[in-house]
Design a protein that fits this description.
The relative contact order is 0.11. Among the domains are: 18-72; 113-257 and 325-338, Nucleotidyltransferase, domain 5 (2-Layer Sandwich), CATH 3.30.420. Helices cover 37% and strands 11% of the residues. The longest helix is centred in the N-terminal third of the chain and has 19 residues, at 22-40. The strands form two sheets. A five-stranded mixed beta sheet has the order 3-2-1-4-5. The protein has a two-stranded antiparallel ribbon with strand order 6-7. It is an alpha/beta fold. It starts with a helix and ends with a helix.
Length: 340
């Protein structure tokens, strides 16, 4: 064998008895962490999100090194699927809302701009339809509803869930021109809750690109990789994916590879820190936002605040009482999941 490989006998035995190099050992350890993260993501994460997860664990590695190890171990993320079913059917008898977004999916705070859309979920029992509402600022899914048919009740149920969980003062709700969103029922609900409807043009996915992007993620990471016999199985799987994975854990490149919930937590903390920063009086002397406390900050019990008037900034309860209207049917989707 040594003669065939054109190596010396002593060199071969020296190589076979040699311990792995430090680089090989480090790469093996890193590969183990990569495999664990890939498995945690249900085999959906590619190199960028795996690298972000490693950074959160305190592991620093270059993009090329991670990509090389993933290629060697045949670890790949998921890809988008092709093909579609038409879910946008405009109703020429209804008047469309103006386009208040103009493809500028930008928000500086939560509950400023929501995007909404519907998609289909194939099962052995036929199509199941899913309507969602997503907050543009954090990419969090704030409302969702399931139905066997594409009706106005479906999109109203998703909107009701978003209103119940977020309680916005005034928010733009952007969607396509599907007949469900131009219906009288949906328009009345928006008017009653001070929601400003906005709609893109017909047949142009770019006018509702952010909602389309969410569904593309859902399809390639879950729907394309599962087969469900019944609508109940599909409901439970998608509910679990949204509430147990997408909102709390899945990393988004558009928000610094944070999950939607973690991004909103950081936003709330920044607002709280800004509210407690010392302000300057006219004489130039710093003063706090409230009376001084007896104990210094490092002595106070964790979780308490120096300002007795401080309150969480996420989901502030509005002054009006429309949100507690008993006629609001929240969301047949939640009751359906509980009754599974």
């Amino acid at each position: 064998m040594c003669k065939h490989l054109k190596v010396s006998t002593s060199g071969y035995y020296d190589w076979s008895g040699r311990a792995p190099s430090a680089c090989s050992t480090a790469n093996a350890q890193l590969l183990g962490k990569i495999e664990a993260i890939h498995a945690m993501s249900d085999a959906t994460y590619g190199m960028p999100r795996i690298r972000a997860e490693l950074a959160d664990q305190g592991v620093v590695a270059s993009r090329k090194r991670i990509a090389s190890l993933m290629r060697t171990a045949h670890i790949i993320g998921v890809s988008r699927r092709r093909g579609y079913v038409v879910t946008t059917t405009p109703d020429k008898r209804q008047r469309n809302a103006p386009d208040l977004v103009k493809r500028q999916f930008v928000a500086t705070d939560i509950n400023q701009l929501w995007v909404a859309d519907m998609t289909y979920v194939p099962t052995w029992a036929g199509f199941l339809y899913l309507a969602v509402v997503t907050d543009v600022y954090s990419r969090k899914v704030v409302g969702w509803a399931f139905g066997a048919h594409m009706t106005a009740d479906l999109v109203v149920a998703a909107l009701n869930m978003a209103l119940f969980t977020r309680k916005p003062e005034s928010v733009i709700h952007h969607s396509d021109q599907g007949s469900q969103y131009t219906s009288v029922e949906f328009g009345k609900r928006c008017k009653a809750m001070n929601v400003r409807p906005s709609m893109g043009t017909v047949g142009d996915a770019y006018d509702n690109a952010m909602a389309e992007s969410f569904f593309a993620t859902l399809e390639c990471e879950l729907i394309d990789r599962r087969v469900w016999k019944t609508h109940t199985e599909a409901r439970l799987a998608i509910f679990t994916w949204i509430e147990s994975w997408y909102n709390p854990h899945r990393r988004h490149s558009s928000i610094g590879y944070l999950s939607p919930i973690n991004f909103e937590r950081q936003h709330a903390q920044r607002q709280k820190d800004t509210a407690h920063q010392p302000q300057l009086e006219q004489n130039g002397l710093p003063t706090g936002c409230c009376a001084p406390v007896d104990k210094p900050p490092h002595v106070r019990r964790e979780g308490t605040s120096a300002c007795p008037q401080a309150s969480p900034v996420d989901n502030p309860v509005p002054a009006h009482s429309n949100y507690h209207d008993p006629n609001v049917n929240l969301v047949e989707n939640i009751s359906e999941v509980k009754n599974l």
